[in-house]
Design brief:
alpha/beta, Rossmann fold, 2 domains, 4-stranded parallel sheet
Length: 298
């Protein structure tokens, strides 16, 4: 009888020990630069170094843990109430340190390596992200959920995003290809390369990026190169939710197929140039624009 009691006590203690160990288990993740980030517990004071990171943290259920954000962190509206800590290119390191963050999330394509090193030298864990594929949006939602301890909401957001993108992929999988020039800016004339997420969104809709072979994510191109490519569709973004006036400058090139068929379109940049769940909205708009272009073929 004593032996049985001792065994029950031992089993109970082992179970309690295991539970306590689980509660204390470190969060260990490798970021997109290969650095290992280790947290003793879910982050409670987070600083975001990119507008899309801010938006993603809210989508992943961690918006309430944000203590500092960079300029243009404007979605959702609650993000505008969070303390600003400069721009993604020039973050205010003193302001960040004063916030005593237990996690900073940075953007490999926008944040200076020097600034990241300085933050790490202060002992601040920094997790760097680089979303270049549609699936990276869902992956990052799940990673933010792990880092912030908001896994259930992050999982729901990732599942919903994947379902929306899969539905678009199925809907447009058999559509005839459309040659597209995506214009980020007028001067200098900028577009997207084949490794940029927008290029994959085009493919999902049956679009072909006329500059997909360029290795840079956002290369400059010449007017002559665009004219030689002769896209069937030109899609512009610009700076905000308003159609940029410079999109109509293409009207002077009447020989362009996109101009002859009136296929000059606009998508708000936040819906397609930010790697967030809202890219599903931008993709739906882009797909519909390519459908319009197909309907205008002779």
């Amino acid at each position: 009888m004593k032996k049985r009691t001792w065994l029950l006590w031992l089993a109970l203690m082992l179970g309690m020990t295991g539970t306590a160990a689980l509660a204390r288990a470190d969060i260990v993740l490798t970021d997109d630069q290969g650095a290992t980030v280790r947290l003793l517990r879910p982050a409670q004071r987070i600083v975001s170094l990119a507008p899309h990171v801010t938006e993603m943290l809210f989508a992943a259920g961690a918006g309430s843990k944000l203590r500092g954000v960079v300029e243009y962190s404007n979605f959702p509206p609650a993000a505008r109430k969070i303390m600003g800590i400069g721009s993604y290119a020039q973050p205010d390191l003193e302001a960040i340190a004063a916030l005593k963050p237990d996690l900073v999330i940075g953007w490999t394509s926008g944040n200076s390596p020097v600034h990241i090193r300085q933050m790490r030298a202060l002992g601040i864990p920094v997790f760097m992200v680089k979303a270049q594929r549609i699936e990276d949006v869902a992956r990052d939602l799940l990673r933010y959920g792990q880092l912030a301890g908001s896994q259930p909401q992050a999982q729901r957001a990732a599942d919903e995003f994947r379902q929306r993108m899969a539905a678009l992929r199925t809907q447009y999988a058999e559509q005839p290809p459309v040659r597209v020039f995506y214009q980020i800016w007028k001067q200098p004339l900028m577009t997207v390369g084949g490794d940029q997420l927008i290029s994959e969104v085009m493919q999902l809709c049956g679009g072909v990026n006329v500059f997909a072979k360029l290795p840079a994510l956002a290369p400059n191109v010449s007017l002559e190169a665009v004219l030689a490519a002769n896209p069937e569709v030109i899609i512009a973004s610009g700076l905000d939710g308003q159609r940029p006036a410079w999109l109509d400058d293409w009207q002077r090139w009447a020989t362009l197929t996109a101009v002859r068929r009136d296929n000059l379109f606009f998508i708000p940049p936040d819906l397609v140039q930010r790697a967030t769940p809202r890219i599903a909205e931008g993709a739906a708009q882009l797909c519909q624009q390519l459908e319009t272009a197909r309907s205008r073929r002779p």
